[in-house]
Design brief:
Elements (H helix, E strand, L loop, with lengths): L6 H13 L4 H9 L15 E3 L2 E3 L5 H17 L4 H13 L3 H12 L7 H9 L2 H5 L10 H6 L3 E3 L10 E9 L8 E11 L5 E10 L6 H7 L7
Antiparallel strand pairs: 1-2, 3-4, 4-5, 5-6
Helix pairs in contact: 3-4, 5-6
Length: about 230
Amino acid sequence: MTGRFDTTRWTRVSLALLGAAALGQTIGCREDARLSGKAVPHVEVRTVEDQGVTLDPEASPKEVAYVLLRAIGDDIWAGSDLAARQRAVERQLAVCDPDYMYERYLEFFGDRAVSERDEWVSMTVNKWAPTLAYYAEGFDFDLPTAQSLMQEGSGGRSENWPDQTVYVDLPVAAPEGISGADVVVRVRLHRHGGEQGHWRVFSVGFAGRPRADATVRAGGGKPSPAE
């Protein structure tokens, strides 16, 4: 797939994110401008259907990650069409875990936490597209292709969230000339509501390890998930 969006528009943002994750807050604020004047949505976890996939409690983490990445791609490809971008953002919100995201925020910031739940969730989800924007060309895939590129890894290393997250790593090509050119997109998920609940996303970013080789991607083994 070619020509759906101008990669140069996003290159500077994405390379900065690769080099310094702390810039995410600043970049996210810029991106929030596209939704200025919009009411902050209230999000609840529910069964949704997107890309022909029903994301109910039976849906796998890979299926949820696939829908998310397609929605992020549509967000980027929409360009200046604000209505289309808004619809894509709503799809990203539909596959997030707002309660878990906010719990993590409150625990991390403690007395310094100032955002309300809906504000924090909306602000966080609106950063996902600019974070992954450079690689959006790689998200124009069908479900079987996406699943062949993903691996799952269980568990978190925090005492507060043991075995409550699943890592789904998607290998994509980094810009030419960038050190560590094999980049893995990492989508973190939490099972909202316990064992019978929905898998939902609480974080996206980049894994701190080289992407898996073809054998691993085809199911020949699983690398340990990176924190």
